[in-house]
Amino acid sequence: METSYFKSYFFNNQKDLKILFSGKAVCDSLYSFGPAVRPNYIIHIVTKGKGRYQLDNESYEVTAGQGFIIPPDTRTFYQADKEDPWSYYWIGFEGDLAGFYLDALGCSGHHPVFQTENTERIIQIIEESFSEDQVSLFSELMLSARLYEFLALFKQATEHSITRGQLRNPHIREAIAYIRSYYATPMTIQSLAEALCLNRSYLSSIFKQEMGVTLQQYLTDHRLTRAAELLGLKNFSIDEIAEYSGYRDTLVFSKAFKRKYSVTPTAYRKAEYEKREQYNEKTVHRF
């Protein structure tokens, strides 16, 4: 169980960077969230206890005085420790420049866990966000200012990041960026290699060596992760979701999805909707 306070914000004027929600929680032993895929960035700041954060195939122990970032379109899971369950604050945001700022700050899916500095001020910023209303221009501007300050403080924190390390080979970074941009197209490993002006065998070899999975596995996982997000968030048909995820054959898509998630796309959507209804029925406890 999680005792939490959560607030959403619905301003639409800030296109470059805008706060979507903020919250805080005290978790019981082994309370978990996920696996889930989010459409936006979320940063958690752990203030007490410890827990485990899993991003893709990597797992991290996160303790008080540290934080972790949830990037969009990535499957994540996190769970409170059994003996010393954590408490944390979080802030969610999006915008045309959100990815740019986080990359510039040195944080990404390869820098998911970091030491926190100026923790008292970070907590104060989130607490102050709770008091803003939903309609005034003053509140919109104040929330925007707090988000920028939060990221400025976050810059100091990421200088002490605990990371998986930067990808050493620029060709791998280019391949990942290409997949994330064009996964919905009829891409093959050959067409990917040709787009990057590289030999297919060479690219496949260096990718497997550094990433630990084949290019095809990475492409498939990215497509199915995106599909899982769409199933949970959008009321598209299965045919549409298959196409939006890079599959032109719905049957092939359904078989691939079931291999990864052990359920059909339809069953997955039903389970996600039921989870959402259960969550909405819970009483939110204020601190």
UniProtKB/TrEMBL annotation:
Keywords: DNA-binding, Transcription, Transcription regulation
Pfam families: AraC_binding, HTH_18
InterPro entries noted in UniProt: AraC-bd, Homeodomain-like_sf, HTH-like, HTH_AraC, HTH_AraC-typ_CS, Tscrpt_reg_AraC-type_HTH
CDD domains: cupin_MmsR-like_N (cd06986)
Domain (HTH araC/xylS-type) ranges: 173-271
Source species, domain of life: Bacteria
GO molecular function, one term: sequence-specific DNA binding
Xref: PANTHER family: ARAC-FAMILY TRANSCRIPTIONAL REGULATOR (PTHR43280), MMSAB OPERON REGULATORY PROTEIN (PTHR43280:SF30)
Protein name per its UniProtKB record: Transcription regulator hth arac-type
